[in-house]
Amino acid sequence: METLNRRKFIQNTGLLAASSFLSPLAAYGFHQAKKRLALVGTGSRGIGMWGSSVQEAYHDIIEFVGLCDINPGRVAYAKEQMKVSCPVYTDFDKMIKETKPDTLIVTTTDSTHHEFIIKGLEAGLTVISEKPMTTDEQKCQAIFDAEERTGNKVIVTFNMRYTPYVQQIWELLRNGEIGDIKSVNLNWYLDTSHGASYFRRWHGEKEFGGTLLVHKATHHFDTLNYWMDSEPEEVYAYGSLDFYGLKNSSINHSHCRTCPHQSNCDFYWDITKDRRAMELYVDHENHDGYLRDGCVFRKEIDIYDTMAVQYRYANGVPVSYSLTAFSPYEGFRVAINGTKGRLDAWIKSSMPTGVPPYQEITITNLFGNVNTIQVIPQSGGHGGSDPRLKNKIFRNPDSPDLYKQSAGSRDGAMSALIGIAARNSIETGKIIKIADLTSLKPMAKKA
Ligand SMILES: NC(=O)c1ccc[n+]([C@@H]2O[C@H](COP(=O)([O-])OP(=O)(O)OC[C@H]3O[C@@H](n4cnc5c(N)ncnc54)[C@H](O)[C@@H]3O)[C@@H](O)[C@H]2O)c1
Q1: Contact 213, 239 (CB under 8 A)
Q2: Which of 40, 64, 279, 373 is such that its CA lies 20 to 30 A from the CA of 310?
Q3: Rg of the Cα atoms in the chain
Q4: SS3 category, 370
Q5: pLDDT of amino acid 381
Q6: Is 130 touching ligand 1 by the criterion CB < 6 Å?
Q7: Where in the chain is the domain with CATH 3.40.50.720?
Q8: 176 in the Ramachandran plot: left (φ > 0), alpha (ψ -120 to 50) or beta?
Q9: How many whole angstroms from 432 Cα to the centroid of ligand 1?
Q10: CB-ligand 1 contact for 252 (6 Å cutoff)
Q11: At what angle are helices 92-99 and 113-122 packed, to 10 degrees?
Q12: What is the CATH number of domain 163-244+302-434?
């Protein structure tokens, strides 16, 4: 960071602090009585990120008043894991009526978020939704309409913005280190462990997660929107299922536990050795039939594992993005070209040779002067981002949003809509204009 012009940066962030009055978190104070939290979707993320850890870290200022899930076994397990005493429900409306929360946390499968976001807004609650905010353009519009009707706002939890290297890149860009941004390449690699896990789970079916272009890439598109400080205008994409799914293997089954091909499948996963997965999913599959160790080659898989997206921001910056879900290693490469130089980062999160203890960002000026910045990941989920996001939401909601990390429905939509437009483009072969999808008109500079 030694090359940053601190004074200029502080000037910039001073202005940004003033704009935090527009933040969806700004009105969310925890000053008086404990906040009454209800949570819907008590799966892995619900219990882990928003359940036990919130109960442990913030029990002085919050209390869980209700938990809800369509799976009665899982919601009972969640209560036990979270060490809370509130009632549990399978009927969301009943939970809201009986427990009178003031805050709702939505951690269900992606394609159902809108239902609970809208009901929460209608009930006058502060709604906190996991990413992606939703999975298609009609549901995006329904959320905007509900916000307008009720005057309430949804908070979308883009934890990636809180990751130290993402924030560091944002600072470098806003500080003008590479001049005006002119083009971007981002290539994202999911490895054969993490990448394959999406194909084992509900994420492998479009109706639940909207494809990885929405479920996964919403993180990447939101980060790009954040870095570019602009909103997407038009999108063209290619996508195919080239590795997982029925057509790409001579062996397949419904799930691993009963599979006759266990000994000759590279993707055989013995879930019975994973106690947490057994207690969270297998013990309750009698209620909903969800097989957490689904076959990565099963016939229901209808998403892409190979994706290439070209899109342009309203400020004219073109982006070339790709996502592959069967890479030997995991991470991403980003290159941002500007009028004064170029920013490169190659962030590795799994490598056969091991992952370095720091992440590197390189700024190369147009005439060859190189400055390398090392960023040390912080402890806590997702490189330290999860605890930072939770602190902002629960502990310090009124603190200045210096790095513009708070996100609402507009950000939630603008990231999901790139993936939704990419999906539409793959299906129609056409360039999709973001302005044609909902009532939102892209802005050259983000608000
Ligand atoms: N920000 C991140 O880094 C991050 C990481 C993981 C997951 N997530 C998000 O968290 C959400 C949950 O993911 P997960 O990994 O916990 O999945 P999961 O399958 O473990 O949990 C989802 C839960 O929702 C419940 N559910 C589904 N439909 C429901 C309905 N209509 N009503 C009530 N409950 C319903 C399921 O029974 C299940 O218990 C997803 O939106 C996912 O994108 C975000």
Answers
A1: yes
A2: 373
A3: 22
A4: strand
A5: 79
A6: yes
A7: 6-159
A8: left
A9: 29
A10: no
A11: 30
A12: 3.30.360.10
